Amino acid sequence: MVLAVTAEGSRNMLGPWCGDGSERARYWLHLLTEIKNRGVDGVLMLVCDGLKGLPDSVTVVWLEPGVQNLMRKIP
User: Does any domain span residue 14?
Assistant: First the structure.
């Protein structure tokens, strides 16, 4: 599920996507490019839960957004 929050605070669901299970950068690059082509001009912050390849892919599509990884390592 991809959710967006504007600077004004309004929330929008950009769409549900189902990955191929690999979480590879190529998949995320395709998905983020699709979102950009649908009109999303930029990303200020990306929040994810440890998805491999996503942080690197977002910097290819948009200029250096902040990335917050919510994945915690359990001892």
Answer: no
The model's pTM is 0.72
Percentages (nearest 5) of helix, strand, coil residues in the chain: 30, 25, 50
Question: Does a structural domain hold residue 8?
Answer: no
Q: Which of 16, 22, 29, 20 is nearest to 59 (CA)?
A: 29
Q: What single-letter amino acid sits at 3? A: L
Q: What is the mean pLDDT of residues 30-49?
A: 85
Q: Where on the phi/psi map is residue 67: left (φ > 0), alpha (ψ -120 to 50), or beta?
A: beta
* 18 belongs to a structural domain: no
Domain extent at residue 42: 23-75
H helical segments located in 12-71 = 25-37, 54-61
For the chain, the domain total comes to: 1
Average pLDDT over residues 39-66: 78
